[in-house]
Structure formats: structure tokens, C-alpha cells
Amino acid sequence: MSASPTRITAALPAEYRARLMGTGREANFAQGVRLFEEGDHADRFWILRSGTVTLDIRVPGSPPVVIESLGPGELVGWAWLFEPYVWHLGAEAMTPVRTHEFDAATVRTIMDEDPALGSAVGHWVGQVLAHRLQATRIRLLDLYAPRGSGGSM
Q1: Does the pLDDT of residue 122 top 80, yes or no?
Q2: 107 in Cβ contact with 19 (< 8 Å)
Q3: Distance separating alpha carbons of residues 59 and 15, to the nearest angstrom
Q4: How far from 55 is each of 20, 38, 64, 131, 151, CA to CA, in Å?
Q5: Alpha-carbon span 109 to 121, nearest angstrom
Q6: Residue 102 β-bridge partners
Q7: Strands (E), the chain
Q8: How far is Cα 63 from Cα 81, in angstroms, rounded to an integer?
Q9: Helix 115-144 and helix 104-113: axis angle, to 10°?
Q10: Are 13 and 135 in contact (CB under 8 A)?
Q11: pTM
Q12: Contacts of 117 (CB under 8 A, 6+ apart)
């Protein structure tokens, strides 16, 4: 089984990974802690070291719907890269979680200062965004698509 292209180890060359990781700090979350809420300002992001974080979306009249579960090496949060820097999903620690936490403004600055690093990080975040969009689409179709439509065999 190959590494997921959305994991940092598969997405970024070692040199860029090292530069990015040098700007982070360790941050840990207990099970049940909300990392962020849909609609809040996106001023940071995380790369999971251990544990599981779920991404969810608000559905009127229901509890939040889990879209995807993330594990070690995966990026938690992409909205920090795109104005207006607002979370489009929510995130919750489903287990105790160890992360590297990054200040979004700092990372955007180093991306601007080194266009090759900026391109690599932007491409990685774009891959993550495309993957999350597809996961959201599949999950919502699973929940809300009409059942039993079409012919039977």
C-alpha cells in the first residue's frame, strides 16, 4: 500500500518538510476537544503525529455529520491558506491527539519568501482540499441520496 498523497511525507520533499516543520510547535489535545468550528477564523493548522481527528459539517436539525477521519501525517485544516481564512468544516479529537501546530501567517510568509517552497506547500494543500471535497461529496450522497431509485435486477 502506497503512502497517501495527502500525507506530508508523500507530498513534500524532505527539504521543504524540514523548513515547514521548523516553524511548528507541539500541541496536544484530549479526546473530545474541538480543534475548530465551522465558520471560525482559520489562523493555524496542524499535522497529526498520533491519534485521530474527525472532520464534520453542520447539518440543520441534526448533530454535526462526520465527513472524514484523519490519522498520523495528515493535515488538519486547509482554510488558513485561502482568504477569507474561515473554517469550512469543524474538527474534533476522537482520541488523545499529538500534533505539530503551525501559525498560518508565519507559514504564508515563508511561502511568499521562497516561491518553490510556496508552490510545493500550495500544491499539497490543493491535493488535500480536492480529497476533502470528494470525501464530503461521497458522505453527503451516502446520507441524502434517494434510496431505491433506478431499476432493479
Answers
A1: yes
A2: no
A3: 41
A4: 23, 10, 9, 13, 34
A5: 12
A6: 45
A7: 25-29, 34-36, 44-50, 53-59, 62-70, 75-76, 90-93, 97-103
A8: 28
A9: 130
A10: no
A11: 0.85
A12: 16, 19, 20, 110, 111
Average pLDDT, the chain: 89
CB count within 10 Å of CB 25 equals 9
The yes-or-no verdict on residue 73 having pLDDT over 70 is yes
Strands 34-36 and 75-76: unpaired
Label residues 3-13 b or e (16+ Cβ within 10 Å = b). ebebbbeebbe
Question: Residues 145, 44: contact at Cβ < 8 Å?
Answer: no
Buried b (16+ CB within 10 A) or exposed e, 77-112: bbbbbeeeeebbbbbbbeeebebbbbebeebeebbe
Phi, psi (deg, nearest 5) at residue 98: -115, 130
In angstroms, the CA 37 to CA 58 distance is: 9
Paired strand residues for 9:
none
Q: 60: exposed, middle or buried (C-beta count within 10 Å: 0-12, 13-18, 19+)? A: exposed
